[in-house]
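Could you show me just one protein sequence together with its fold in token form as a worked example?
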Amino acid sequence: HLSDDKGAQLLAAIEEYERICVSRATVASYLSLSYDTQLHNDGLKKRKGQVSQQQSAVMGDFLEWFTLDLAALPQEKIKELIESTPDLSTKYQAFLDDIQRSQPHDLSKEVERALTVRSPYSGTRPLVSFLDKELSLMKFDIPTHNEPINMEVLLSQLSSSKDATVRAACLKSLNDGLGNTSTARVAALSLSAVAGSWLIENQERQYSGLRSRRNLSNNCPDAVVDSLLKAVRSVGVTYCKRYYAMKKTILQQTQGLDTFRWSDRNAPMDIQTANRDETKTAEGKISWGQAVSMVESGYRKFSPKMADMFVEMVKEERIDVPAADGKKGGAYCSGVVPGIGPFQLLNFDGTQHDVSTLAHESGHACHDILAYKQGYLQYHPPLTLAETASIFGEMIVFRDLLALAQEDPRERLTLLMSKIDDVINSVVRQCSFDRFEELAHTARDKGELSVEELNGAWSQAMVEYYGTPARDGGDSPFDDYDDTAYLWSYVPHFHHVPFYVYSYAFADLVVGSLYNSFQKNPDGFEERLLDLLSAGGTRDFATALAPFGLDPTSPSFWEEALEAHLGALMQEAETIATELGYSGSK
């Protein structure tokens, strides 16, 4: 029981709660990071699961009540306590606000405890973990390798090969491997469980829409997210089709492409440059040392402070680099807890995309370091801002490379098209993922999801965002969508964080607008951005972006952001392509 004049008592309780959470997160993060680099280690998997079960029991039995009681405190009482103990507001205002916002959706203490204690046993976690392991163990045969390769190397080949037949073989091997084994069935079972859990909790917790639960955790109104998705579905899709039409034309003239397939979507441009590329090894790959230098150079020209953070992370060996067997796919940065993190997991294979990924994840790491001063309970930014530093990191490295290519239009076009590939993947493709999730979660209300249903939802989302294939008389630049039916089954976000993917589009367009702001008014911009990042989770997106003159709550913001960001890149690329004589380019 909390007496009316005991604000100090509440402050001490929150500080103790935070210390307990830090201890819990430290242990869990250590086991999780260790396991993600050795998914074949069944002993470690068992230990990780055992600790997860113990921690969930402790949380349910001894800690769940605290946040529920805190959320149930009347606003007037919170205000009185803050007046008597101002440090409550100084140290934990954002935490208190988050807890209070969730209160209308909290269930009874008994139910919340049961959900927490049971989650390692009967929740979605075991299924999702099993799928992660299955994906990490997959092997694929492709013509360029004598031995079977893992998925990360396959995906690297798919996006980096300048040979259309190799790209097509990679995509077919990936799709067949997912569909002709148990993987797609396991993915369908996992996604069905995730969507079912999401559905029933939405109903029980009385959220108004499919995304409302995620939006609330992002402190972002449903209307803002709906406006983003609407703009991408219209303006973004138009640019997307226009870009791939240009890319198709250039690939036909530079690589002799007959059919523009889905495997050609991320194909690198084979445009001869005037100067030899000194960043590539004899095998045409970028070395790790060269990648580090490229990222440091880009960071340093914009923010020496962020560059120093990046160099320190490399020196301290906080980055697990190679694309090794038995390692979790993709890339991520784990903040762990203040004073211990951050750490990065990469699957580096020497491509230009891998350099962008290093810049991206290092942006996350810088964000974590800057925000650690907010404490464990408040350093995590909302998802709508969580990708800001990471995508800005990519942007500054890209702009640095683009400036170096000022006198070489071929190299400049190559860089521009690579960047447009990234923007479309972050904006249009991620929103198409969101649409797939919407279709899958809606169908889950009618029963367990089958592989065939999910294949259909995937195909529908592709047509809605990329058009009907030209082979079928449609408006898509792509001639066909062969070998794509099962690609939904290896996207991890669908299972780990439902309806997370729109945050990539949100951040990419916000960063585009931020960069335009920087170009127009560079004075003091670095300080303003570092201040935004240092705030962690203590500011909502509208408050955080106001110093830059940006208002994402405006109905016109997203369309204007698409025009200024993607539209500007497209215009420059089309101009150069026309000057170089690629007929059909605008």
About this structure: Residues 467 and 476 are 4 Å apart (CA to CA). The mean pLDDT is 91. The chain has 23 helices and three strands.
